[in-house]
Amino acid sequence: MSDSLRSSDKQCPQCGRSLPFTEFHRNSRRPDGLAFYCKACAATRSEASRRKRGITAQKRASSPVAEGMKWCPDCDQIKAIDEFPRIKKGSGRHTYCKPCHNLRGKETRQRLYGGSREYHLRRRYGVGEKEFQELLSEQGGVCAICGAADPQHLDHDHRTNWVRGILCFNCNGGLGQFRDSETRLAGAITYLRGTTWQRLSIHPGVWQMRSPARGRPPSRSS
Length: 222
Prior knowledge:
Layout: E1 9-11, E2 18-20, E3 24-26, E4 34-38, H1 39-52, E5 69-72, E6 77-80, H2 98-113, H3 116-125, H4 129-138, E7 153-156, E8 163-167, H5 169-177, H6 182-192, E9 198-203, E10 206-210
Antiparallel strand pairs: 1-2, 3-4, 5-6, 7-8, 9-10
InterPro entries: Endonuclease_7, Endonuclease_7_sf, His-Me_finger_sf
Pfam family, one: Endonuclease_7
GO molecular function: endonuclease activity
């Protein structure tokens, strides 16, 4: 081979060797789309960095991993690729299988937020358990709509994401079913008051619109 590099080769600054592109990891952030160091040197540098920081050596699967399978470092089991959660941005899979991934997430939420509830409140609504209890106290400890005791659902405006109050399960679900629409809620109130017109069958295939005052009372068998 001549002194000049072939078009399919790249020189590693660590070991000084001219190697094929396949010996370098891909890196889309670099101009040539390849990592700075070759795979062997990158692994050596990573291991040295871990030792310097007091991190134990990376675990390796004790047996070969077949195609369509993946090894989980936490439980040390080889499982089908579908047993690993998908990475949201991309087509890859997470390092740990679903049970281990969930357990790690739970431990992280406990360590950083004191529990899953605090984590979800902060992430979804921007408030914590302390603010939740303060708001509940302002409501008198009851649902802001029906007055049921010990409500646990934080309600918010889906357009602005502003927190509105704390509701019981039924009231919170009811607002969701009515899509937070005042028009739909007003229509439901009108319907419950019995002031809407109803369609009544007077003959097979023949219908007549009647007000509730002229409607038939419910049969005893209904």
